Amino acid sequence: MKAVILQPSKCVTQSGRAFKKYLLVAVESKEQRYQEIHHQWTGCSDPVAQIKMQFDTLDDAINFAKQNNIEYEYIKATLPKPRKKSYASNFIVST
Q: Which of 1, 5, 14, 61 could pair with 55 in a Cys bridge, judged by C-beta atoms 3.0 to 4.6 Å apart?
């Protein structure tokens, strides 16, 4: 069993710069996913694939994976680079 440790990015609808402060541990499934015909849902016969756990620190997430003998991969979050923009640029109309 392999898990991925990552910090989720903010949603598209969020305009602030405060990112989610927790780390997410998601277990990867070895089972093939299938699409349910009538409702168009995606499913998997492996119930472990649905597990997602939240931790406050990276050390807590890594210790959990080590204590439960789970291989893990840490994916570091990429933060957007701040763009320098003047207040006057809000009022420039391009034609």
A: 61
